[in-house]
Amino acid sequence: MEEQKQVAQALKPEGHLVAGELADRSDSVTPGMRIAAAWSWRAIVVAAAFAIVVFVVIQLSEIVIPLLIAVLIASLLVPLVHFLTRHHWPRWLAILVAEVGTLLALAALIYLVVTQVIRGFDDLRKQSVQSYDQFKDFLANSPFQVSEAQFNDLINQGVQSLQQDSGVLVSGALSVGLTLTHVLTGFLLVLFSTLFLLIDGKGVWHWVVRLFPKKARPAVDGAGRAGWHTVGAFVRVQILVAFIDAVGIGIVALILQIPLAIPIAVLVFLGSFVPVVGAFVTGFLAVFIALVYNGPVPAIIMLAGVLLVQQLEGHVLQPLIMGNAVKVHPLAVVLAVIGGGVLGGLPGTFFAVPFVATLNVMVKYIAQGTWRVNPKPELEDVVPDA
To answer: Which residues cross the membrane (predicted)?
Structure first.
């Protein structure tokens, strides 16, 4: 009987093995599936870690965002501090001149805009009233034949709807006040963070490097230096793009002889640092002033000029110039801005490109083993055409 079972087992085809027996065999999982599984669980771990980091950053955004802004400002001011110290300036004086000079330059731009607007406010108010009357006459003589009484009824209905939604307006005002408080707190945090980065930025970075294992510190230190140079290149290019944007829209305003052309250019320059919203608000202001002072035709031309400059800046200048400076493909720049907006809103759109560029340079620096032959990279090593 035992011999018959052995003969039957020997004659059984390989494919007739039962599920349990097949599962116990070491070759039941193909090499491709093993590789896919290995990549899959590692990708899940990386995605989970990234999600945790994003969650923590969002929860601590009131601290993280000012700190990141301070890093961008410090990357712009550190070369100036080094330049002054090389010319025998005391380091404390070089730091003071760099930070206070930046504040004074920003305050001067804001002062220029405010004074120009105040000087032209009465004229702007008169022109607005005149344009308002002309608009009513246009509606009355148009095919719609909207009378002044009907127009006033529409205005009254709008006022009544605003009064009915007064609760929303009050809550909105409270939220604006809360936002202003956060902005002031963030501004002070930016000032202090920038000051300490200028004073002892190397010490802060060395402390961060010491958190890693001893064998990994040379690679981490070199990658951090390469990323720092990339951030500095990004800030300088962003200023260049904002300047080109402001000059383009300012030239259009001057050609059309629109009043307040200089304040418009300054506001466009400042607004260019706030993605999407800044360009929209400053562009709308330029078109509104053109409409009030010069009429509908110059306003349409101004709108076309604003759209043309913004399209060139957004789709040509920024991807090409910034892509070359930070060594990121233009498509990656566009996708990074969109992804940053989805994950982090307005701050995400602003920090997306420098984050991706810095991460790209640091990963490439470590992966290629550059830290073994060049442990302290300079700007020319990271951005050769700088």
So the answer is: 39-58, 64-85, 92-114, 176-199, 239-258, 264-293, 300-321, 333-357
User: Which pair of structure tokens corresponds to residue 365?
Assistant: 């620096």
- For residue 379, the one-letter residue type is L
Predicted local distance difference test score (pLDDT) of residue 178: 46
Cα 68 → chain centroid: 11
Q: What angle do CA 255, 258, 260 make, to 5 degrees?
A: 120
* Tokens of residue 99, six digits: 């930070």
Tokens of 90: 């005391």
**What is the rounded CA–CA span in Å between residue 366 and residue 361?**
9
| Contact (Cβ atoms closer than 8 angstroms) between residue 62 and residue 185 | yes
SS3 at position 32: helix
Q: Which residues of 313-344 are buried (b: 16+ CB within 10 A; e: fewer)?
A: bbeebbbebbbebbbbebebbbebbeebbeeb
Residues 75-115: pLDDT tens digits? 889 888 989 999 889 988 999 999 898 889 888 888 887 88
Name the residue among 272, 241, 383 with its Cα closest to residue 324: 383
Q: What share of the chain is helix, strand, coil (3-state, %, to 5)?
A: 85, 0, 15
> pLDDT category, 15, cuts 50, 70, 90?
very low
Cα distance between residue 341 and residue 125, in whole Å: 37
Give, as one character, the DSSP assignment of residue 259.
T
- Arithmetic mean of pLDDT over the chain: 77
Residues in the chain: 386
How far CA 23 is from CA of 9, 10, 17, 27, 40, in Å, comes to: 18, 20, 10, 9, 21
Given a cut of 90, whether residue 45 has pLDDT beyond it is yes
337 CB-near residues (< 8 Å, 6+ apart): 275, 349, 352, 353
Residue 289, both tokens: 């002033």
d(CA 64, CA 52): 15
The dihedral through the CA atoms of 304, 307, 312, 317 has a sign that is positive
Best CA proximity match to 378, nearest among 225, 204, 199: 225
Alpha carbon 63 to its chain centroid, in Å, reads: 17
Q: Would you say 322 and 230 are in contact if contact means Cβ atoms under 8 Å apart? A: no
Task: Copy the structure tokens of residue 194.
Answer: 């920038």
26 vs 19: CA distance, rounded Å: 13
